[in-house]
Design brief:
Layout lengths: L4 H29 L5 H27 L1
């Protein structure tokens, strides 16, 4: 299988754009649903969840996308 540089670059750019949009959006959404004293903890847990999801995407999902 031959990898195209254009396809690879677009997949990386689009993945980074989605992650940059999603992390603050989900963090603020769930932070707004929690009590005032738990907002920072909820935002931090959202960041951790997306960090783990990003790592899984890098290790396994990228290979499956092609």
């Amino acid at each position: 299988m031959v990898l195209s540089t254009g396809n690879t670059a677009w997949m990386l750019v689009s993945t980074i754009m989605v992650l940059l949009m999603t992390i603050p959006g989900i963090a603020f959404f769930y932070g707004g649903l929690s009590k005032r004293k738990n907002v920072l903890n909820t935002m931090f847990l959202s960041l951790i969840a997306f960090s783990i999801a990003s790592l899984i995407w890098i290790l396994y999902g990228y290979q499956l996308s092609f």
